[in-house]
User: Fold Aldehyde dehydrogenase (NADP(+)) from Saccharopolyspora terrae.
Amino acid sequence: MNTTPRLTEPEETPEELESLLAAATTAAADWGRRSPHDRADALSAVADALDAEGQSLIIEAMRETGLTEGRLTGELKRTTVQLRMFAEELRDGSYLRIALDRQDPDFVLGPRPDLRRWLTPLGPVLVYAASNFPFAFSVAGGDTASALAAGCPVLLKAHPGHPETSRKTAGLVRSALQSAGAPEGTFALLTGRQAGVSALRDPRIAAGAFTGSVAGGRALFDIASSRPNPIPFFGELGSVNPAMVTSGAERERGEQIAAGFVGSFTLGTGQFCTKPGILLLPRGSELPKRIAELAQNVPPARMLTSAIADRYRERTTELADIPGVEVLARGSEHADPSDIPQVSPTVLHAGSVADLLSEPALLEENFGPCAVIAEYDADEDLRAAISAVPGTLTVTAHLAGQPDDAERQLVSGLVALAASRSGRVLFDEWPTGLAVTPAQQHGGPYPATTAVSHTSVGTAAIDRFLRPVTYQNAPEFLLPEALRESNPLGLPRSTHQPGASQDWAPPQ
Assistant:
């Protein structure tokens, strides 16, 4: 039995929490009114501060998480790149989607008033940091960056798995924002579990963002939804990320696929939300044996926290004990100086797709270096498997370089189905390579996320913390600067003039 001590968190007092909430509320009006260029400069200042103290942050994160220097160096770079990407999005200004409809007495549906629409900040946002990315999904990560970019103050609930890294990062964020002229209360750190729940219930919090487990995320989502004034809660919860391989792909590059799969599902000790947890192979494939051999050569690595290690141990034992499941590679557990165990990979063979689908537990995420393999006989098996997988972040397909007609027909029929079950459909790659770009979609149907229409990665993440407002026949002096006729901020806008083309009007 594991006797690793549990993570504890210092708790803010009710008075301390009240002070933080009041400061965020006061800051909201000021920060939200700042010009996009001013907020862009502030985000760039945060990125510069993190870069300047990068080595000390990485050393602290290595000590607390057991992650390697190379991994954390890359992650910190991603964090500062995200901040600068949002700064550029602000300077561009098109994210506001400003639309002006000029007054038109001859409009086809009757006289049209002057209408001016844009997007405005929601208000203070409560962000829950993730365990597995101490920089990119934590204190100054994508949720924080996108909320600040939108004009929303952020209360950041730190993860207990890396408390000192969180405190050091938060100090740098606060100092950089203050130096850039942001109002007091624009950013603050929470460390207490109860404070994180109490803040979510507070009517001054306008939205929540979370990356973590299904159980924890769903509990918070339910709180946000059951408030007297429900608020949006953008949770990334759990994802099994199935991958399928055609017989043509196996013939062409079976060894490459086996090595890529093992590298992907064991990356970061299997503690990535995009880890491919299920692999669907053609009946009679030689790849399961090769995958097991490669997995057995992967050295053990430390889990992030004792709680994650405990749950992984329980889930892996549960899956391995399912009748008919064959353990192709049995992972082992090893002591670590941190008292959080190191584990080696486990590979399970569920049998046929029918066997896989008969056990719902096999279709649920197991957060750690464990993967499930099942074999399909016909096209219908693949359709049944993808249909049965709960909402997921990704679906991956490996195809032959020059697929024949049968393979083209197979995959063509699966792409729309895969898109209906996930937010990203990949071909001939592995999902753990997540590019941070404007076109990225990191989301999916529940339980992958609680808000299928949005992404938590890429510049489109800013949309989560904005809402539309239209001004009708407003006097110029009462309009926000961005909507005034003179356009003093020089922001892009779409304009519909009186008498513009009305091709969609019915014939007279």
The two ends are 81 Å apart (CA to CA).
